[in-house]
Each structure stands twice: as C-alpha cells, then as structure tokens.
C-alpha cells in the first residue's frame, strides 16, 4: 500500500513510525529538511523536501498511485488544499487534520467529500472522547469497546488489593472464565502472556471481557472502593478541555481553571454553565484548588500546553486525595517518564490522532484498530472471510505469529471469549492483540 504523509511534525512522524513497521510504501513530505532528517535515518521511508501543496511535488511523490494521502501539518488550510490536489491527481483516499471544530459537523461531510477530502480529524475531539471514557470508569486506565461494546478491553493498574496476583494464568483464565488477560505491561516490557505467566503488583493488565462481567472484573482487581466520578476539576481551558466538558455525561459537573481572563469569557459562552463552572486562576495555586473543593473532587484533569506542569499538577492532586488523574503529555519523550511516576491516565492527542488514521491504512476487512501507546501494541478487529486460514483449525493449531493473541470474537452481534479450542467461523469479527508483529502477517489468516 502506498501512503503519502504531508507534514513531518508530531502526528506525521508518529504515524510514519507506526506504518513503517508494516512494510508499507511511505513517502513523507515537509518543507523543513531538518525535520525530515530526524526521522529518515531510523525508518524505512522516502522523504521529499518540498511543499505538499505543490502539484509537481505530489506527482514526484507518486500521488497518482497513492492508496492514502494524509495532510497533518499544523496548517489546516495546507492540509485541506493538499488533500484536494491529491484527490484530483488520483489518490484513492484523503484525510486532513483540522483545527476548527465546525468542519467536522456531520452535515458538512458531503460538502468536503465533493471537494476531495474523504475524512477530517480534529485531534482535540478525539482526545476529549478518550478523557470522557476514562472518567466514566474511574478505576480503569484505558477502555476500548469492540464492535459497539459486544466485547470490552480494560487496561487496569494492579495494586495490593488485587485478588489474582502471583497465580499462573492457566489457573485463572480457563475456557469458562469470564475474562482473558491479553497483555501485560511490566515496567518497560510488554508481555503477551502464556499459561505459566503471573500477574504482579503494579502491572498494567489488559483484560478482555463482556459488558455484564465488568463488575466482576472490578471486584477481582480490588477496585470496588474507587468512587464513581461526579465532580471533575480541569486545569487549562484549551479546546480539548472545552470538548471534554461538552461531552461529559449529565451526572458529572466540571470546574475549568484557566489563567487567561478573556479565554474564560470565551469558554463561558460555549459550555453549559449549569454543569460547568469556569474559574479565572492558576491551577498550580494550592490555596485556590483547596478553596474550589479539590478534596471533594473525584477526578483531576491537567490539560495545559506544558507537559511538566500537567504531570506535577496530577501528582499534587493525588497527594490531596484525588483518585482519578489524567494528564495531557504532548511531548512523546515524556510519556514513559509520566507512566513511571504513576500519575494516572496519559493522554497524547497527537498519538491518538495518529492511531485514528492508522486504521485507515489497513484492509477494509479490519473494522477498528487501536494502537495502545502505553503497551506499544496494536488491537484490531478482523472479519474472518469464507475459506480463510483462520476458519480451518482450532485456535491453538493456527500457528499465529509470536507476540499475537486472540482476545475474543463477535458472532451474530454477541461477544464471546476465545480459548485454544475455539473454532472461528466465517463472518466472525475477531479481536487480535499483537506486539511487535507486522499487521500484514495477521491479515493473511483472515483473507
């Protein structure tokens, strides 16, 4: 598959890194030679030092043969214009990053399609959705709904209260068990577990289960004492904060602390003031946080543009008794450090946007893909085609690549967990979790 990326900034470079693992034909275009040099030496891709809005540049990149053209420069006009040109020159599919929320209105979809822009992404909205999902389940670090919630994947940090530590998984995850452990993040290592592996304290464990067993999972990991989130304090009044406040469930109330007075006035015009209070102040000011009731707050979300500030603010909130903390960490180099400090959920809107685009490069038979930054792993939904290799043997006989496990399947709209003796049928939607595995190797089992 030929993929052209316009913009060697955070989203473009992160996306190029993800795609280069799968032996794709990647061309990265940028006007800054230094940015291109920073990535081209480490990854298998072609770089072009030029403007992505140049017709000749697009032709030199082979846009007429491109399966996917992606515009992810900081300039939304550049992104949209280059997508329009790319489509006119023969690109099969185009996607542009935008900074204006109005553009992603469903009513405008046909308008942009007619221009030649197939998809628009607004990273702040994607990040807000992840934040809101995290607030709905205060005891979970990550949640991923498979096939409209038929299966649920939960990433959970294990503490002393967990009931299933230090036991072989073969004794815990039996065919009749209501969950499977599909991956374990331990320190810097990601483990695709086998029967003899055990869960250890401070592991991040990824559970695959069905919706009705979520309370059971909560019990066995010892998280029943975590209170549900009702009051949320948000530090920083940027676009992600606004989108998060607007998409929170009705039973939640939010306080947004923003230092800029004019920005506070702007936010007040947009949010529902019955459920969201905007406070003009410095979120690092401890007396202000106490005055605004941080000790009675169940969640603290730090969304300023400064990663260090967000990390320190979440550490402070934890010391003041806030159970659920979420930090925006835009510098990818800081993500592992933030995780080691155990500050809670890490949100990187650039990585989220790259992950969202990532699924577009896979075959149409892959319905949903998610790159889990914290586990350095992919989760994907594949549809088993009639006569495909995946349908001809039991799971344990398939010889799946090392680093791959099947978490579950959806058959006739109903979620089922998978064991070694499971036989996958044509039409089943199968959830595959893989670490350091070329996705094309997995696709071959399903096509």
From TrEMBL:
It holds the Pfam family TrkA_C. The lineage of its organism: Bacteria, Pseudomonadati, Bacteroidota, Bacteroidia, Bacteroidales. One of its GO terms (cellular component) is plasma membrane. The keyword Transport applies. Keywords: Ion transport, NAD, Potassium, Potassium transport, Transport. InterPro entries: K_uptake_TrkA, NAD(P)-bd_dom_sf, RCK_C, RCK_C_sf, RCK_N, Trk_Ktr_HKT_K-transport. Residues 1-121 form the RCK N-terminal domain. This is Trk system potassium uptake protein TrkA. Residues 141-223, 367-447 form the RCK C-terminal domain. One of its GO terms (molecular function) is potassium ion transmembrane transporter activity.
